[in-house]
Each structure stands twice: as C-alpha cells, then as structure tokens.
Amino acid sequence: MKFHLKTLSLPELQEALAPVAPSPVAVRKVFAAVFAHGASTVEEVCQAPQVPKRVADFLRQNAEMSRLQVVERRQAEDGFVKYLFASPLGGRVEAVRIPIFDHKYVVCISSQVGCALACDFCMTGKLGFQRNLRTWEILDQVLQIRAEADRPVRGVVFMGMGEPLLNYNETLRAARILSHPAGFAIAGPSITFSTAGLVPAIRRYTSEGHPYRLAFSVTSAIPEKRLQVLPIEKAHPLPELVDAIREYATVRRERAMLAYVAISGFNTGREDAVALQRLFEGIPIKVDLIDVTDPTGKYLPPSAEELKAFRDHLQILGAPIARRYSGGKEIGAACGTLEASQYGGVVLPPPATLGPH
C-alpha cells in the first residue's frame, strides 16, 4: 500500500523512507517540497533540488498525493474569502481566508465533514456528522489557499466545520506539520483549536504540552442556558469543563481564552456576567465576545447598546474582554454559518485567470 506524502510528519516520513536509508537532509528536502513549497504531485517532489535519485525512485513507486477539488471561491465585501472544497474521499468542507489588516492572512479550516455536537445556533451542527477528515485533507485547505494568496498565511484556526478534538490525532498531526520550520513555518501560538468543551480531550491536550492554543466555547455560565444551545453540556457539565480549563491555564501559565457567543435577550444580562465571574473566580481568563450569526433567525445578535451594557457588566471579571469580528456573513463564512453553501458575495475566477499576484 502506498503512503500519502501530505499525511506524514517529518519523523513519519523518515520512517517511510527508511528502506532507502536517506540522509536527514534528504528527508527534510522531501518534506519541504511537499509543505513549504507546495508540490502538487509526487513527480514534483522527486524533481526537487537535493532529493537523491534513489529516494526519488522509491517515492515514484511507493508514494501518492491527492488534492481537494476547489468547487468555488466566494468573496464578501469585507475581504473574507470562503473556499468550498470537495474531497475524493467524499463530502464537502469549507475554509475561510481571513484578512488581517493589509499584510497577512489567517485561515479558518475544517476538521470534519459536518459535526456531531449539534450546537443550536450553528449551521454545521445541523448537517450532522459524516466523517473525520484525514491529515492531508486538513492541510490541503491551507496549501491551496496559500498558493493563491497575495499575502503570507501567518495563522491557522481550527474553527471551521467540525469539533477538532473529536478528530484528535489527525488535527494534532496537521498542527505539527503546520508549525514545523520546514513545513508551513506557522508559529505554534498562531495555531488555535476551538472546542465546545470535550473534557477528556482537553485534559489529554494539556498533559501532552502542545504549543498551540485552545479556545473554549462557553457561551453561558448558567448550566440551563448553556444546555439549551450547547448539548455537550449534558455530557461534560460546566464544573467539569471549568476544572479542565483551570488545569490548562495553570500548566501553561497563561490566560484561558473563552469564546462567548452573544445572543440578544439570552445571555447578555447582568446575571450572566455574575455567573461567569463566580464560575471562573481565581482562573486567569480572557473573553472573546462573538455576535451570533444565525441564518434561521432563531437567535439574534445583541444591539450595540445591549452589547455595551454587557461589556460593562463583564468588568467584574477583571479580565481582558475583546470583541471578535466574525466576517463574511453574506457568503456564509461567519462563525456558525459554515454548511457547504453557495450564496452571496462575488464568485472569484480560478487562479489561472487571476493574473500574477
């Protein structure tokens, strides 16, 4: 059986090439050809500089590479670009190219086809779970977006379709490759995993000491409210989640990032701020406020006045409060709207007709 070059970390590649006893330099050159330079075929890898003939011949016989199909690229007025991909293994997923000022991009990527957690305000959750993505499918989202980008990709967030900690091994392998100097060379702290609160995986992640960040979806510190919108509250109640977050913050000696989806008339009152303060007392945190984006209209974002009042209430936390911009709403690229959809914005032509960057 052939091995897939886009699926192997550097140590795994060394092991796969062991029959031809390559030098460490040769292994690194193959790895860099795939990930740093974005080779799209095995033959391109074989022709890379400093790849010895015996290694190239072995790769031609034993290695393979696949690509996701770009179904379309769709751009919103705010510059967010959503890529819709189809996989030869089945299913469609989305990734979003996020502009950061005018000098770099962050890419929001998917880890699963669909999602099993069924968060009530999330369109991905309404699709149900189909399957986990393989490492190469995760990385190919970044590879293809990077290849067409006019600025460097400096960050990756696992905040697209799926719960990344339910696809633990594949997403962590992808992160190791993304952060490797001979891979994508993205700094570890610039890679973020968003989790709805999968406590056993959070504890495992903390014990393994990864350099990437976790963002914890809390949305309400009142159990009854949280259960209404995040069914995972039933399996992993808030007290368990808070204990895991405390451990994470203690081990890493940093503030834990809480993602709080603000919903008008639901979780933006003084009682919500007080509950949050009591629940996380003694734990260093920072809070990212995210306006809900629910195309069904069931949940609405708070008005400017409501959000300002809530931020005032949150001052009792004594913690940094930030408002995270959720862009690309009109193309279904905002937080909670990814559902492999095709609407709004401007459809971009394939790169062959885009001209040079």
UniProtKB/TrEMBL annotation:
<dbReference type="GO" id="GO:0005737">
    <property type="term" value="C:cytoplasm"/>
</dbReference>
<dbReference type="GO" id="GO:0046872">
    <property type="term" value="F:metal ion binding"/>
</dbReference>
<protein>
    <submittedName>
        <fullName>Ribosomal RNA large subunit methyltransferase N</fullName>
    </submittedName>
</protein>
<dbReference type="Pfam" id="PF04055">
    <property type="entry name" value="Radical_SAM"/>
</dbReference>
<feature type="domain" description="Radical SAM core">
    <location>
        <begin position="101"/>
        <end position="329"/>
    </location>
</feature>
<keyword id="KW-1015">Disulfide bond</keyword>
<dbReference type="InterPro" id="IPR058240">
    <property type="entry name" value="rSAM_sf"/>
</dbReference>
<comment type="similarity">
    <text>Belongs to the radical SAM superfamily. RlmN family.</text>
</comment>
<keyword id="KW-0963">Cytoplasm</keyword>
<dbReference type="GO" id="GO:0070475">
    <property type="term" value="P:rRNA base methylation"/>
</dbReference>
<keyword id="KW-0489">Methyltransferase</keyword>
<keyword id="KW-0808">Transferase</keyword>
<dbReference type="InterPro" id="IPR013785">
    <property type="entry name" value="Aldolase_TIM"/>
</dbReference>
<keyword id="KW-0949">S-adenosyl-L-methionine</keyword>
<dbReference type="InterPro" id="IPR004383">
    <property type="entry name" value="rRNA_lsu_MTrfase_RlmN/Cfr"/>
</dbReference>
<keyword id="KW-0411">Iron-sulfur</keyword>
<dbReference type="InterPro" id="IPR040072">
    <property type="entry name" value="Methyltransferase_A"/>
</dbReference>
<dbReference type="GO" id="GO:0051539">
    <property type="term" value="F:4 iron, 4 sulfur cluster binding"/>
</dbReference>
<keyword id="KW-0479">Metal-binding</keyword>
<dbReference type="GO" id="GO:0030488">
    <property type="term" value="P:tRNA methylation"/>
</dbReference>
<keyword id="KW-0408">Iron</keyword>
<keyword id="KW-0004">4Fe-4S</keyword>
<dbReference type="GO" id="GO:0008173">
    <property type="term" value="F:RNA methyltransferase activity"/>
</dbReference>
<dbReference type="InterPro" id="IPR007197">
    <property type="entry name" value="rSAM"/>
</dbReference>
